Amino acid sequence: MNTTSHPTPRGLVTLRSAEATDIDYLVELNKRCFPAMAEENVVWTRGHLLTHQRLFPAGQIVAVLDGVIVGAVCSLIVTLGDDPYRPHTYAGITDGGFFHNHDPQGDTLYGADVFVDPEVRGAGVGSILYEARRELCRSLNLRRILAGGRLHGYAEVAGEMTPEEYIHKVELGEIRDLVLSFQLREGFVVRGLLKHYITDPNSKNNASLIEWLNPDYVPIEDEDQRKVRVAAVQYQVRKINSFQEFADQVEYFVETAHDYRADFVLFPEFFSVQLLSQDALKNLPAPEGISRLADMEEEFIELMSRMAREYGLYIVAGSHPMRRGDTIYNACPIFSPDGSHVSQPKLHITPSEVKYWGITGGSELRVFDTPKARIGVLICYDSEFPEAARYLSDQGAEIIFVPYCTDDRPGYQRVRICSQARAVENQLYVVTAGVVGNLPSVPAMDIHYGRAGVFTPSDSEFARDGILAEADPNVEMMLVSDLDINDLYRSRSSGSVRQILDRRRDLFSFSSNLKNDLPGLADEDFTPVNIFDPEEE
């Protein structure tokens, strides 16, 4: 989400997406907010929150006041079919608190938790977080928000009335409930009672089923279709005389992708190295050239951000050298239609990148949530390592974009063949785009071989040979393709082969040590939230 600021009586509160570095603090804050529930093992662990961020980062939002997190929301998307108000438990609807049942194709945003530091309650932080959740529902065009609201004060009057009577009196304003009264003020309505919802002494395990209907919801005409249009730019590098010439060439393709109603446009790896062909920069020694190019990061980012906003699409901006401290990374910025961006560094660095440019490999690999699809990026050489794609697949990626820069046909074939293999073994789409043309005045960028492609799983839902589209080799052009995301899920569940479901996890294990992973996770971090046993009531 975009970072936003909101005035409160206690000062300016900033909302932003939760990050891995927040997790330890959020665990402790959650315990402070719900001390009675902490004793019942129904508060978040590090494993819960890490999984939330991996599966649905857009739904995990924190509120920050004076540099300190003072509140947070946790949400997931679910599919409830023809009976959205059917009884359920907290552990059931959240898959033991881990959100593995998060369904990007669902129509309902489920509010798993909202918690605010007791020290700032009454300052409006809760209302700000609820509005952020409503805005998320609108932006994703979801039908509703549902949640189970604990009947916080019911235990005090349980001998005098039933839970149903308690809810009715709260609705009439005759009783004030710390949770439900607030939710009613936030525009929610009660749809029913959830008995045995969660182990909670204050509510005697009862909750109200509450709903907020999205007034801006637009029904999808054909709910069996979830199409994404991608444009892969086969970009020809050529001598330029100014940054503006580079910008004009790039904008031509962005504008054309917009004209073709593309949702994503992909540029190749290192296409911005074309900037070193300017007279003032050509023929520089390779280390100096890459350093000068890294100095242009701000200008490059501003250009891409402006175009993403003006043309209203996602730009997967190939890659650009980015300096962090004394280290230069080869990183791909991904720009949203609002102009914001995140970056994915290249993990595996080729010998020539080390030799000529002194590039260092990154240590973070992420899946990025968008309303259209969950995407990941593997830059060129990264596609040749199956572990990287497997990691993205395990985090829910539906499309992997592979920007590449290869000098000859063997190099191109390595990327192409491996990209197609990644699509088959992970049952997802892989979109590739490479540089073509020559830059004789720029060391290590003198010749190129490229052919953009879109690769699919190899099954009856897809193209016969697993190749949805391929460009003509070594010709500047743009490849436009439509991807049906639902085909991926049909293939995964009922295809002739099911690589995702049929993995022998009992024989082969997978682990990672990425920077965005949490260190030192223990078994208790992966304990499901306490599942209520009605016999214990």
Automatic annotation (TrEMBL):
Instruction: Note the CDD domains from the entry.
Output: NAT_SF, nitrilase_Rim1_like
Q: What single Pfam family name could you report for this chain, choosing any that match?
A: CN_hydrolase
Q: So where does this one cross the membrane?
A: none
Q: Where is the N-acetyltransferase domain?
A: 13-216
- Please provide, alphabetically and separated by semicolons, the GO molecular function terms listed in this UniProt record: acyltransferase activity, transferring groups other than amino-acyl groups; hydrolase activity
Record keywords, A-Z: Hydrolase
Secretion signal: which residues? none
Q: Which Gene3D superfamilies match?
A: 3.40.630.30, Carbon-nitrogen hydrolase
Occurrences of domain CN hydrolase (ranges): 228-485
Q: Which InterPro entries match?
A: Acyl_CoA_acyltransferase, C-N_Hydrolase, C-N_Hydrolase_sf, GNAT_dom
Full protein name = Hydrolase YhcX
Its gene name is yhcX
